[in-house]
Design brief:
Chain A: Its main location: membrane. Chain A: One of its GO terms (molecular function) is ATP binding. The complex is a heterodimer of chains A (255) and B (486). Chain A contains nine helices and ten strands. Chain A is an alpha/beta fold and 255 residues long. In chain A, a hairpin with a 2-residue loop joins strand 9 and strand 10. In chain A, helix 3 crosses helix 4. In chain B, 56% of the residues lie in helices and 13% in strands. In chain B, helix 5 links the parallel strand 10 and strand 11. The chains are: A alpha/beta (255), B alpha+beta (486).
Amino acid sequence: MTDTRIEVTGLHKSFGTLDVLRGIDFTVPRGTSTVLLGPSGSGKTTVLRSLNVLDTPDRGVIRIDEVSVDFATLPPGKAGRAASQRLRAQSGMVFQSHNLFPHRTVLQNLIEGPVVAQKRPVDEVVAEARVLLDQVGLADRADSYPHQLSGGQQQRVGIARALALKPRVVLFDEPTSALDPELVGEVLAVIKDLAAQGWTTVIVTHEIRFAEHVADQVLFLDGGVIVERGSAAQVIGDPQEERTRRFLRRVLDHG
Amino acid sequence: MRQVIRGAVLLLLLLIVVPAPATAQQPVVRVGTEGTYPPFSFHDPQTAELTGYDIEVVKAIAAKAGWRLEFVETQWDAIFPALDASRIDLVANQVSRNEERAAKYGLSTPYTHSRGVIVRRTGDTRINSIADLRGRTTAQSSTSNWAKVARDAGATVEAVEGFAQAAALLAQGRVDAIVNDNIAVLDYLATTGSKDVEIAGDAGQAGSVQVLALRKTDASLLSQANQAIDALRADGTLRTISQKYFKADVSVEDGGTADLSQGRGRRSTWDVLRSTAWPMFVGLVKVTIPLTALSFTIGLILALLVALARISPYRVLSGLARAFISIIRGTPLLLQLFIVFYGLPQIGLKFPPFTAAVVAFSLNVAGYAAEVVRSAILSVPRGQFEAAATIGFGYAQSLRRIVLPQAARTAVPPLSNTLLSLLKDTSLGSVVLLTELFRESQLAAAESNEFLALYSFAGLYYWLICVALSAGQKRLETRLNRYVIA
C-alpha cells in the first residue's frame, strides 16, 4: 500500500454525450514511470488531466499518497473545490505547450507557486529553484523571459516549474509534441534523468522508442478503456491485442 | 479581490456621506443664478467675482433677513429643476412672474419692473412687432418666460443657454429674432458695441415684473424675503443699486428709462483671454482632472467586477452584468448624469454635485470598460488559467497574478480611449452645477462674447492634457510589451 503512489479506480468521464473514460483502473508504484499510449481520442490525456483535476471525472476514485477523492460523492461548491485542490497539490503538471507565464522571468516562473500558493520562504525557494534550473541545464537563463528561450528550453523550464512545487508525482502531457524534432532529445533526456532519480512520473507521449526506454509500466488505451497493460517489453515489444498492434504499426511507420 | 471590493465600497460610502457645509446659527440660503446674464448676474471681468443687479439685491435682502448666502451657478434651464430637487432654495435671476410659476412656486414681491423687447438682425424689416414672430424662429432659454411669449406669438423656439448665445445665433442668421428683457438687450448692445442686431420694438403686453422664486413649502423664508424687499424699497437701497447699474430705478414701475450706454467697458480679446486663463486652469486642476481621475479609477474597479460577473457561470450574475452594460451603452451620458443629479433626489438619494458627477461618470466608464476588460481576460490563453491552477492558485490569485497582468496588455489601448473620452466628457459637468474648465469658458464668454477665442482656448487645455495622457499610454504599452518583444 505504501509503495503505491497512485491508485485509480473505476474512473468515468463524459463530455456531453461522448463517453471519454469508461472505467479506468490502474496503480502506479512509487518511483516508477508509467507511460500512457493510445490513438488520439482514446482518453489518455483525460486520464492525465483527471489526476490533476483539470478535468473533473464523473465518478471513480483517485488516490495519490494519502489524499483520496471519490468523485461520485464530491460535494458541490467550496468543499468540493477544496478537496480537488488538495488532490491537485499532490502532482506537478508539464503541458504540451509549456504554458509558462510570459510576464514572469524563468526564475519567477519557478518560485511563483511555492512562494505565493505554498507560502514558503522566498530565500529557500529561490535556492532550490536555482538547483533545479542547473539540473535542467538552464542555470544561466534564470533572468530571461520565456520568449527569449528556444522551445526545448521553454519546456525544460516547464519541467523545473513543476518540480519546484515538490510534488509526489510529475505528470507529462505530450511534452515533446509541440517541439521541433531537433529539440525533442534534450527534453526527453531531462525526463529520463528524473525517472532515474526516483521521481514517480506518468507520461502521455507518442515517442514509442522513448517509452520503451523509460517506462516501467505501459498502459495502452483505446475507446476510453485500458486495452492492454504491462511492462514496455510486453506491451510494445510483444503486444497481444490487435488494436495495440495496429496502433504501434502506424506510429512506428511514421516515427 | 475581497480587499479591492471592500476598498471600492468604502470609497463610495465616503463620497456619499461627505458632509454638507456645516450650518452656523444663521440659516444658509442657497441662491440659484446663471452667472451669465449681465447685467443682472455675471462675473466681474476684473475680479472674477459674481456680481450684478440681482446679486446685489439678494445680498441686501440677506443682510436684512439675516441669511448666509451660498451662490450656485447653473444655466437657466436647470434652475427650476435644481429648486425642485432642493439643490437651491431660491432663484435670483430675473424670474418673470406668470401664472404657471405663481401656481407652482412661492414668488416674492417684485424687485424689477421691465418690459420685453424684440431683437432682430440689423435692418431686417420683416420683423417689427410681436405679430411678425408668427412662423419665425427665435432663440431663448427654453423654459424662460420670454420663450413662452415667443411661443404664444406663434414662433418656433430654439433653446439656448443665455442671452449671449442667443445674440450670436441671431447675428449669424441662424434664428430670426430674440425676445428678451430690454435691460439685458441694452446691456448687450452697449457692452459689445454690436451693430449686427437691434431692437425692433416692444414685445406686446405692457410690462412684466421680476421676482425671487422659492419652493411653495418655504413660506417663512418667503415672508422674510418679502419683508426685506419692502424695507429695502422704503430705505432707498433698491433704488441705489438700480441707479448704479441702469441709471434708472427699475425697482418701481415708471422709474425712468434704463440707460446702459456706458456699457461695462469693453476689453480686448487678449485681455479677456488673459483674465480667463487662470480661472480655467483652476477649473481644470480643481474639478476636471480630479473628476476624471476619480471616475476612471472607480469605473475601472467596477468594470472589472462587471466583467467577472459577465463571464461567470452563474446565470443571474451574468444576466445582471449584461443588462447593466446594455443600459449604460444604450443611453446618452448626459441623460445618465441628469438621472443621478436631478432624478435620484426624488427618491431620496441626493449627492453633492461633484459626487453625483463621479457616480454618473464612473458608472458610465464601468459600462464601456467592462466589455474591454472582459475581452482582454478572454484573450489570455486557457492554458494560463490551467498552469495557474496546477501551481496551486485559486481563482482570485490566478486572476490577479497571472491573468490580469497579461490582459492589461490587450486592454491598455482601448482603455486609454475610454480615459480620453472621459476627460472631455467631464465638460458635461457644467450642467450639474460643476464649475469645471468648460464652464469657466462659458462664464467668460457670456460676459465678453468672445466665443471663438475662449472656446478655442478651453480646447487647447483639453488637448494638452490628452497629449500628456497619450504619451503616458505609450510608455505603459512599452512597459507591458517588454516580455513579448525581444
